[in-house]
Amino acid sequence: MLSKRIIPCLDIKEGRVVKGVQFLGLRDAGDPVEVAKAYDAQQADELVFLDITASYENRKTLIELVERIAQNIFMPFTVGGGISDVQDIRNLLNAGADKVSINTAAVKYPELITEAATKFGSQCIVVAIDAKRVQTDAVRHPGWQVYIHGGRTPTELDAVEWARQAAQLGAGEILLTSMDCDGTKDGYDTGLTKAVSDAVTIPVIASGGAGKLEHFYDVLTHAGADAALAASLFHYAELTVPQVKEFLQHKGVAIRYEKKA
Questions:
Q1: Mean pLDDT across the chain
Q2: d(CA 13, CA 196)
Q3: Does the annotation mark 11 as catalytic?
Q4: I need a surface site. Which of 23, 211, 242, 256 has the fewest CB within 10 A?
C-alpha cells in the first residue's frame, strides 16, 4: 500500500505567503523560504507552491523565488501559477521544481497536458482543479463547477468530468481544491474528493477545509484521497505536520513518519 501524504501549501502573492477564506480576504503568513524550511524540518512529504495571482495578472511565476526555495529544502516540490506553455514548465523544472501544477492553461489548452507529459513524463504534471458546488438538475443532484484564474472565472466544465479527461490526456496527479471549503476549517469536501477519486486512477490531492486532525483521516480514508493538503492550519501553527502524521499513524493509516526523540 502506498503511503498517504501530508502536504503544506504556500499560496504566494507579491513574494509572500498568504492565506484567505474561499480565495478571498488574503492575509500575510510569512517569508516563503523560511516557511518552506520549517516544513522540511517537520517531515512534510511534499511542498506545493502556488503563485495564486500569476494567471489572473497574465504574468509568469516568480522563478527566482522558486530557485531559492528549492535550494533550501529536500522534499519533493510542486510549483504552479502563470504556466502557459512547455517552456514555462521547463523553466520551473530547471529552477528546482520536481513537478508543475497547471490549472488555467490546462483548461484553455488541454493539449498542453499531453505535450508536457510526453516531454517531461506524467509524473511531473499535476493538473490543479478549483471547484465550486452547483446544483445540476431538477432533483438537485450536487455537482461541481471548475473555476480558473485563481478562482475568479467560472467555466462550463464539470470538475469530475474534467478530472477524468485530464487523466486521460496524461496528467500524473490531480490537485483538487474545494472553493466552498477553502480556509473554512470545517473539513474537506469529501463528496467532491470521493467523486473525483472514484473517477480516476491517478493520485488525488485533497485541498480546502482542513481544521482538525479528524478531517485528514476522513479525506484520506473515507473519501479515497492519496494526499491531504493544508495551508492556514499549518502556517499559523494550529497543528503541525508531525501532529497530523502521528494521529494518522495511530489510526492505522499508512504514513511516512519517524517520531523524533
A1: 90
A2: 29
A3: yes
A4: 256
Cell 475568479, residue located: 152
Q: Is the pLDDT of residue 135 over 90?
A: no
Cell readout for 173 is 496527479
> CATH: 1.10.357.10, 3.40.920.10, 3.40.1380.10, 3.20.20.70. Which one for 5-250?
3.20.20.70
Name the CA dihedral angle for 9, 182, 242, 219, rounded to a multiple of 10 degrees.
Answer: -120
Instruction: Sort residue 118 into left (φ over 0), alpha (ψ -120 to 50) or beta.
Output: alpha
Residue ranges per structural domain of the chain: 5-250
C-alpha 108/C-alpha 126 separation (Å) is 15
> What integer pLDDT is reported at residue 160 of this predicted model?
97
> One of 11, 40, 158, 218 is an active-site residue; which one?
11
In the prediction, which pLDDT does 139 show?
45
Q: How far apart are CA 159 and CA 129, in angstroms?
A: 7
pLDDT tens column, 63-90: 889 999 999 999 999 999 889 999 999 9
Q: Is 130 a catalytic residue?
A: yes
